[in-house]
Design a protein that fits this description.
Function: Part of the Sec protein translocase complex. Interacts with the SecYEG preprotein conducting channel. SecDF uses the proton motive force (PMF) to complete protein translocation after the ATP-dependent function of SecA.
Shape: elongated
Number of strands: 23
Membrane topology: Multi-pass membrane protein
Subcellular location: Cell membrane
CATH topology of the largest domain: Multidrug efflux transporter AcrB transmembrane fold
Largest sheet: 4 strands, antiparallel
GO biological process, one term: protein targeting
Number of domains: 3
Strand order of the largest sheet: 2-3-1-4
CATH class of the largest domain: Mainly Alpha
Subunit structure: Forms a complex with SecF. Part of the essential Sec protein translocation apparatus which comprises SecA, SecYEG and auxiliary proteins SecDF-YajC and YidC.
Number of helices: 15
CATH architecture of the largest domain: Up-down Bundle
Radius of gyration: 33 Å
Structural class: alpha+beta
């Protein structure tokens, strides 16, 4: 019989609609501004007296608290106003000991428990809707090359000492690494030995006699590979650091050959985010130089907490922070902050080898941080800001090796618990392969994000109202069916984005508006085809059947073409373009479902199997 679906198809459509409704409902519940208090140490839970003291202080400061959620891992204080978050965090920080607690700004979901039981959660809002910070970082490629040459130079010196080949000095200049020898014979032996182990250099001899030098220039291919590695490694490290911040749906992606974009939606403490994301700290473990060590193998450094104290260290590095597999902050027996270090297998082997043969000798922990300073210079009569990179190196500790160390040990001598926590975070997330510098910093406040949301919702409502009005005037009863399907389409689109964890941005809202127009376009094709069949003399049932069947090909062709465009936009686009492409792709699929199946089901239920002489279309 024409225009009748089997029962299973109606039940399938109903199931999809119910699932779509359930997973779209959480988006009606707006996230609450909150302050998260979690214990930095398992032995320091937040007592009821402290919690009562916090609540009393917030009341006295005029900060409204909507709810307080107490859990095993901390306390979540929900606030009535987003503007009170920073003030509340500072107030709580004054009451609590920062050594024992981590106080962070957060946006807490307000989804009812019955929806959470279905694992339903709202869409994640992007930076332009939720507010947050946008950083554009640049990787210092020259420093990446210099760091690699330093590592190679250290390995070469150790190799030469092992083979008892005498050398006088090591110099690094750009991409060149120069070793100076006592005579030509030592230089030739060194070249034969080094060239086997280091194939990424072009080798040349300079001078003779006591001025015999071996110049090693890093090849173009090696430089390109190193630069690509530096950017990719920094991407991984930054993603790990952002994960430590607990930001929902952050974006960390490469832009061009040497730049990285970091977007942190919902982050309001830009200073803390900038300190963690942009930190370029690393550690080096070195032995203190012996009195008889040649001057060309010694470097002198001062202590970070007392610049008047200095120590002479060996230029060779035992290992760096790259070998750290885990790090966490704790306190020693005297209550001073320390960082507990766990090394990977290779790092543990190197540490054990260096310490078991140097018991009684001092080992230093050298803290290295790359920064930039901006100076103003005059060029062509105009003031121009120039960024100058510089590196700070200072000793954290200098301790005597009492016994051979393995994969686990601790670092003491830190100034504060905050410094210990930051250092542990940086070591835990991995060190940067090359220094990074802030090129651009942009902050979007939560109020501006809310304004974008309001305008986006308004645009959707206006577009929906215009489409609904047009369909009612043009197609009457069939217009009502199309409008119901349009509402279902929007619900399914929101549900799909929520289930997939997609991030909604302003371009995504534009994709939603476009989806509404495309969804009704399919209905227009079907309804106009039904009109033509009626004018051609077919009966009502035959015209409805022919309208859906013959418009099917045109609808599929148009939507597949648009879907291909969306896929291309997603593959080659950046963040906002990807957001638009994701929304458009999902919208195409939900539009085809509602236009071809949902409206057909409603038409079948209305007219199917009935002796209808005339329809309002």
């Amino acid at each position: 019989m024409l225009n009748r679906y089997p029962l299973w198809k109606y039940l399938l459509i109903l199931l999809v609609l119910v699932v779509g409704l359930i997973y779209s409902l959480p988006n009606l519940y707006q996230a609450d501004p909150a302050v998260q208090i979690s214990s930095a140490r398992s032995e320091a839970p937040l007592s009821e007296q402290r919690l009562a003291q916090i609540q009393s202080a917030l009341d006295e400061a005029g900060i409204s608290v909507s709810a307080t959620d107490v859990a095993d891992d901390g306390v979540l204080i929900r606030l009535a106003e987003a503007d009170d978050q920073l003030a509340a965090r500072e107030l709580i920080g004054d009451i609590l000991d920062d050594d024992d607690y981590v106080i962070a700004i957060n946006l807490a979901e307000s989804t009812p428990q019955w929806l959470q039981s279905f694992a339903a959660s709202p869409m994640t809002l992007g930076l332009d809707l939720r507010g947050g910070v946008h950083f554009l970082l640049e990787v210092d490629m020259d420093a990446a090359v210099e760091q690699r040459l330093e590592v190679n130079a250290s390995a070469m010196r150790e190799m030469l000492r092992g083979e008892r080949i005498r050398y006088r000095n090591t110099e690094i200049d750009g991409r060149d690494l120069t070793l100076t020898f006592i005579n030509d014979e030592d230089r030739d032996r060194a070249r034969t030995l080094i060239s086997r182990e280091f194939p990424d250099f072009d080798y040349s001899n300079q001078g003779d006699g006591r001025g015999a030098s071996l110049v090693m220039t890093m090849t173009d291919q090696a430089v390109n590979e190193l630069q690509d590695y530096a950017v990719n490694q920094n991407l991984t490290t930054l993603r790990n650091r952002v994960d430590e911040l607990g930001v929902a749906e952050p974006m960390v992606q490469r832009q061009g050959p040497d730049r990285i974009v970091v977007e942190l939606p919902g982050v309001q403490d830009t200073a803390a985010a900038k300190r963690v994301v942009g930190a370029t700290a690393n550690l080096e473990f070195r032995l203190e130089a012996r009195p008889d060590t040649p001057d060309n193998e010694i470097e002198t450094f001062s202590f970070r907490n007392d610049e008047s104290r200095t120590a002479d260290l060996m230029r060779d590095v035992i290992l760096t922070g790259d070998s750290v597999s885990n790090a966490n902050r704790s306190f020693d027996e005297n209550g001073r902050p320390q960082v507990n270090i766990n090394l990977d297998g290779t790092g543990g082997t190197l540490m054990n080898r260096a310490t078991r043969t140097n018991i009684g000798r001092n080992m230093a922990v050298l803290f290295i941080e790359h920064n930039t300073r901006t100076t103003t210079v005059i060029e062509d009569g105009e003031e121009v800001e120039v960024r100058e990179p510089y590196t700070e190196r200072g000793l954290i500790s200098l301790a005597t090796i009492q016994s051979a160390l393995g994969n686990s040990f601790r670092i003491t001598g830190l100034d504060s618990p905050t410094e210990a926590a930051d250092l542990a975070l940086l070591l835990r997330s991995g060190s940067l392969a090359a220094p990074i510098y802030f090129v651009q910093e942009r902050t979007i406040g939560p109020s501006l994000g809310q304004d974008n949301i309001d305008r986006g919702v308004t645009s959707i409502m206006v577009g929906l109202a215009l489409v609904v009005l047009f369909m009612l005037v043009r197609y009457k009863v069939f217009g009502v069916i199309a409008n119901i399907a349009l509402t279902i389409n929007l619900t399914l689109l929101v549900a799909a984005m929520s289930m997939l964890g997609a991030t909604l941005t302003l371009p995504g809202i534009a994709g939603m508006v476009l989806t509404l127009g495309m969804a009704v376009d399919a209905n227009v094709l079907i309804f106009e085809r039904i009109r033509e069949e009626l004018r051609g003399g077919l009966s009502v049932q035959q015209a409805i059947h022919a309208g859906y069947e013959r418009a099917f090909t045109s609808i599929i062709d148009a939507n597949i073409t648009t879907l291909l465009v969306a896929v291309i936009l997603f593959s080659i686009g950046t963040g906002p373009v990807k957001g638009f492409a994701v929304t458009l792709s999902l919208g195409i699929m939900t539009s085809m479902f509602t236009a071809l199946l949902v409206t057909r089901a409603m038409v079948n239920l209305t007219y199917g199997g009935k002796p209808v002489k005339k329809i309002w279309i």
